[in-house]
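## tool: complex_structure
## caller: assistant
## args:
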Amino acid sequence: MKHLSRYRRHRAAAPLLLIIALLGIGTTFNVASATIKSTPNTFSRSAAIDEGKQIFLKGCSSCHGLNAEGGAIAPSLIGVGAASVDFQVGTGRMPMADMSTQAARKAPVYDARETAALAAYVASLAPGPAIPGDEVLNYERDGNTAEGGELFRNNCAMCHNFAGQGGALTQGKYAPTLMGVEPKYIYEALITGPQSMPVFSDKTLTPEEKLSVIKWIKAAEAEPNLGGATMGRIGPVTEGLLTWVLGLGLLIAVAVWLTTKAR
Amino acid sequence: MTTAEKRLGTVANYVDERTGAAGWMKKSLTKVFPDHWSFMLGEVCMYSFVILLLSGTFLTLWFDPSQREVVYEGVYEPLKGLKMSAAYASTLDISFEVRGGLLMRQIHHWAANIFMAAIVAHLLRVFFTGAFRKPREFNWILGILLVTLGLVEGLFGYSLPDDLLSGTGLRITSAIIQAIPLVGTYISFFLFGGAFPGVGFIPRIFTLHVLLIPGAFLAVITIHVMLVWYQKHTQFPGPGKTEKNVVGQPILPVYMAKAGGFFFIVFGITAFLGAVASINPIWLYGPYNPGQISAGSQPDWYMGWLDGLVRMAPPLETHAFGHTISWNILIPALIVPGILFTGMALYPFIESWITGDKREHHLLDRPRNVPNRTALGVMSITFVLISLINGGNDIFATVFDLSINQIMWFSRIAIFILPPLAFVITKRLCLSLQRADRDLVLHGRETGRLVRMPSGEFVEVHEEITPQERWTLTSHEQQPALELSETDSRGVRRPGGFKNKIRVRLSKAHAVSVPKVTAQELKEIEHH
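## result:
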């Protein structure tokens, strides 16, 4: 150790020790948090329900009631099922940031494990729609794009617009854009009917038809802008704006230039 | 003379001996056109019309104007295997399989939008400068006819592809036709060849869109331009410009070069838009099906204000003797535009009745010098803008996080309050501008340069404006209000007393002005 202690007052010693310490802490944290992440595979159903209940009591019960029975400002959650919780909490709509006209999509407050626990707790209160698994959501295999488009125009376009860009509803409510929404959440919205949206039961739209709709939405999302800049895919309003601002604007600028007297 | 000149002379002589064109050409080619950017708006209309003819002809080569049902087997995957009309399928083919087809479609549609925008801008220029006054009243009416033709032609044009959006527009068109009392349902049946959507409408409007209306356009545009040629172009007031002359460039060579170049610039800008900006992406809308509708279904901008009026109308209906009268459609979609367009067409005659001015006018008004007319114009623009905003109420609601109901209620109230308010504000602004002109003539331009006088006083130096500027600011005439006595020279009461009373009151309102600087006042100033 003597040859090491010779360097203890070296200029590089302090920074080097700091780096070693930081690396140590970082590694320990990474290993520890990795262990936490791996727990959902192992934690049991009843443990999840218990954990979900604790989260519910802390984060949800002030509006939805201590037993999820609902209240003056929030509906009962008994029987809404795991799919509803997964949609509302997973997309960040619940817990609501403010009591405005409609809960907007935002960064989720609870992580995947907590959301799963909440879903398990609410599902334990009464039977309801379950979260669709990956096997159910195989829209690439089970869906048909053209048929999905026709179903979309029949059932969805009147609120969500012809290209799934969203649209206005009454009194400040709106149908949100469907671009960038995960297939799981589209499916869950269809079977649970969040906010102003109606429920599309398996009798209205069969599971295959739901997958076709999802496949069409994904195709619309991936479709390149075939005619150039789209200005939002919301129809002629932006086209008219561009006509006046850019089209006529440029032409008038040229006319002014052409009639300027030479100096 | 060089050889080239000799050769040209021989050719010219050959043509002249056979057509006698030399005399006319000599006169016409030296014809003078005044220069102002706003005089080129009409040219934009004409050039976009030429672009529309060229690109439209291209589209007819592939378009199949039929409502026959076909199964789509083209290249656009998301619609493959769907049943649709041949019109829609052929428009998809033009977009995806005809070389340059999508570009041509987009050029055609952008040109149509620019055509209508330029027509409106041109109309406003003519209105605000008083270019419609005698002897140009007929040409004004022809202009109103062209706007109306343009609205119908545009509606038919974007209805042809038979996509979901255009079908929605036709549904409303049929509803408006049905709202005509008594005969509406019959007319709708005849036009659509049965109950909506029928099978006959698309082929019928195709013939109107590519043959009848463009023919009418060509005829009216020709007369419109020939009248300008014959009556000569108006000019803004200025030194050397009178009611009896035209100051500007002769048509050859400078004006011709500019106008010819401008055509290519208009074509270039339209083609640029067609190349970089998507318009009417019918493949996204899907084929028309009366059971379907999309959120945010709007017509093109020039129809948007009508849509907005219909959207703000409260649900009023009368049922009597087995008939339904839908006031909620009849008033906003037929009666209000009817009044607006009739009023617009008759305006030159109304104004000359009010002012009693029956003289010819070739010098334009500066808008501020006729406050009443300018205010009326701004009032109309305000009316149309509110309607237009309400026409896009669902888009505005989502983009600006508003409630569609609030926008509708705002429009319902604002449509009655804001236009009169705009009238009053504009009139005051015009009078203020007149006052500013008066100050400018009397006291010159403020230079911001402060000078200390020997007495210790600080004064700002005013710079006198040039005689040319002074002329421009003072050459206009300020017509006094009409005075109509209620009795004639023999003391007998004249007929039409009530009418005259209205006329006198309107004339008084029309003649309100800040007195312009007189020669006398200027002389006094010079003595200071």
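## assistant note: Residues 13-37 of chain A form the longest helix (25 residues). Chain A has twelve helices and two strands. Handing back to user.
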